[in-house]
Design goal:
This protein has 399 residues and is mainly alpha-helical. 69% of the residues lie in helices and 0% in strands.
Length: 399
């Protein structure tokens, strides 16, 4: 409501600043000779002051006075008339007064969202955010500084090294992130997700070049998990950078076939394939359709792995009448069904994000972090959601 009132006042002020001058006629400008006469009179006064101060003698003053008086008489004899400025334009004023607000309203109706309800700033973006996220990059920098201080005192804390690596990645401090990943791997013995993340940071630090160290990290990740998406993506990129364009395209095609049709990484794979084919001077093949496993629909309702259905209005009403214990039991049952489904569909990014949110609400911190870790593995490089997932993990670990 306050915003609407403010916009109305702003519109009125803008329209008034344009319309009011058009509603009144402006005074005519004085003729040029009037300005000339004023100048010559000032010159006469200045001449008298110079004579009084003894700056010029009487003969020079007399000659100058005659010249100024001659010019003054010439200006008086000029028959100029006042310059008339435009008259009032009430028609134009009314047209603008009506046209400007109506035009603004039509543009807003065409491009805006007048039916969208108001929303506090702090609540915006929660639809896509995986959990209550901490603030933006400024807070990431503060978090990184705090983690570095804590790690100086506790250098063997692998969990904090991992959190620092993710935080530095969000700050685009690629080499610092890679160093933190390497420390975390040395303390935990490594793992497919850590090896791939470490390799990715090395690639980013090298301006997109898959270095030998990064190549080795991706191979280690792929040895642990043959379905490791980042490892497969960057190993194909390494082939393209080595000149094996056809091999790279073939590897990217196989990776695309293993992704659902609506996966973000398919668009990135298509772009990479087109670029590689253009450089090699060969036609770019179309992406293959998802394989049967990647495109398989979710299990039928009622099966053990089925996703819990959305609650109906009656379900919500019933839940409101439950005791706290019964309501918690119902929520845990739905979360358990979702977790069971994800065991058979581990590539469901949205499912892992929902599971992370659910465990966060239930206060099961470790399970929420594990769910977000699974989601982060499925996110392609450069995805905006990586920051959101990292924020959620940081917020959970800070509790």
């Amino acid at each position: 409501m306050l915003l609407a009132v403010a916009l109305i006042f702003m519109t009125v002020a803008v329209v008034a600043s344009v319309v009011v001058p058009l509603m009144r006629a402006q005074r005519p400008l004085p003729e040029r000779s009037a300005f000339d006469r004023a100048v010559y009179r000032d010159q006469l006064k200045e001449l008298e002051r110079d004579v009084a101060r003894g700056l010029i003698d009487a003969s020079e003053a007399s000659s100058a006075r005659r010249e100024i008086e001659r010019r003054l008489l010439a200006a008086d004899a000029t028959g100029e008339t006042a310059v008339q400025r435009r008259a009032a334009s009430p028609t134009l004023a009314v047209a603008l007064a009506l046209g400007v607000p109506m035009g603004a309203a039509l543009i807003y109706l065409a491009l805006g969202a007048p039916g969208m309800p108001g929303q506090p700033f702090a609540a915006r973006g929660h639809e896509s955010a995986p959990a209550d996220s901490i603030a933006g990059h400024g807070d990431f920098a503060a978090s990184a500084a705090k983690l570095e201080q804590e790690l100086n005192a506790q250098p063997a804390d692998a969990e904090k090294w991992l959190l620092l690596a993710r935080t530095e990645a969000e700050l685009r401090q690629w080499q610092k992130s890679a160093d933190a990943y390497r420390r975390a791997m040395s303390l935990t013995g490594g793992g497919p997700e850590l090896a791939s993340a470490y390799g990715e940071m090395l690639v980013m630090a090298a301006d997109g070049i898959v270095t030998p160290a990064a190549h080795e990290a991706f191979e280690a990740g792929l040895a642990h998990d043959p379905a490791d998406v980042p490892a497969r993506f960057y190993l194909a990129l390494a082939e393209a950078q080595a000149g094996n364009t056809k091999g790279a395209i073939e590897m990217w095609q196989k990776l695309a076939a293993d992704q659902p049709n609506d996966s973000e990484i398919r668009a990135e794979l298509s772009r990479r394939i087109e670029e590689a084919a253009k450089v090699a001077g060969i036609p770019a093949p179309a992406l293959p359709p998802p394989s049967s496993a990647a495109a398989a629909p979710p299990p039928a309702a009622g099966s053990p792995a089925a996703s819990p259905p959305s609650p109906t209005a009656q379900d919500i009403a019933n839940a409101q009448q439950m005791s706290d214990e019964d309501r918690q039991a119902m929520i845990r049952s739905m979360v358990a069904k979702l977790a069971a489904r994800l065991e058979s569909q581990p590539n469901d990014l949205d499912g892992w994000l929902r599971l992370g949110r659910a465990y966060g609400v239930l206060g099961e911190r470790d399970k929420a972090i594990d769910a977000y870790d699974q989601a982060q593995r499925l996110l392609p490089a450069g995805s905006d959601q990586r920051q959101e997932v990292t924020s959620a993990i940081a917020a959970l670990k800070a509790k």
